[in-house]
Amino acid sequence: MISFSAFVKRFFSDPVAIGAGVVLLVLVLMAVLAPLIAPQNPYDPLQLDIMDSEMPPSWKPGGDDRFLLGTDAQGRGVLSTIMYGTGISLLIGVGAVIVQAVLGITLGLIAGYKGGWIDSFLMRLADIQLSLSTLMMAIIALALFQAAFDANTYADYAIIMLIMVIGIAEWPKFARTVRSSVLGEKKKEYVDAARVIGLPARRIMWGHILPNTLTPVLVISTIQVAEAIMIEASLSFLGLGMPTDRPSLGSLIRSGFEFIFSGSWWITLYPALVLIALVLSLNLLGDWLRDVLNPKLRRGED
């Protein structure tokens, strides 16, 4: 396991990791501090004026200094909606990965340690889950949810539903990763010693084996946050994600897509650029973590 000082040294010696880390930090701070620094609250109807709709960025002819990146069809400042929308996208991405991790780590730990028919059953279940498209399963589940409840109820529970649907659909990736690590760890001497002194299986799994399997979990978590954000953006673009009055980055892109050919390109372009920057920075940091924490997988090495 790499020491903290070596970890920090490796980070500051890698320009790609520094760049990705700075971009991610800026986006996270922007989302967290949105209620304090955003020029406008896009959720407050009293701050919206339909007469301000589809205004271009402030440096374009017809722009307004109040709206640096222009406004959308509802008169909301694009910069403000991006700040709030980034927070919602991050919340759904992190929340979905927590659900994935809880399910995947638990089932992977049990499968790897117990073995036998329990391992076979859980891994076949994971294979079936992986054979199904996450996006397809999410579309079916969310379409049924929208059909079963009215628009207000859906808006209230959209974040929870997206977190649960994406989280449940992606648990096998954590389960298979943890299981493979457990299979290697349970044959080591410290596990045999724990069994000899009479420790229960539950304590051996959670207290001794699990801490030694968290390195690959950390790597996959970073990448899975990016994937969850992309899945949510895809669902929102299809109209099955966040409602337009509580937009994520995906629903912001969707809301402006129909205005691209009418000249209001900024409504879609800027949220799309932020989404690309967010996902790319998470993926680059995930790749960097993989290389640092797993020396055998470093680029250029076999």
Automatic annotation (TrEMBL):
GO biological process: transmembrane transport
InterPro entries: BP-dependent_transpt_permease, MetI-like, MetI-like_sf, OppC_N
Keyword tags: Cell membrane, Membrane, Transmembrane, Transmembrane helix, Transport
Pfam family, any one: OppC_N
Domain ABC transmembrane type-1 span(s) in chain numbering: 86-286
GO cellular component terms attached to this protein's record: plasma membrane
Bilayer topology: Multi-pass membrane protein
Segments passing through the bilayer: 12-38, 88-113, 125-148, 154-171, 209-231, 265-289
Keyword Transmembrane: yes
SUPFAM superfamilies registered for this protein in UniProt: MetI-like
Family: Belongs to the binding-protein-dependent transport system permease family.
Record's protein name: Peptide/nickel transport system permease protein
Lineage: Bacteria, Pseudomonadati, Pseudomonadota, Alphaproteobacteria, Rhodobacterales
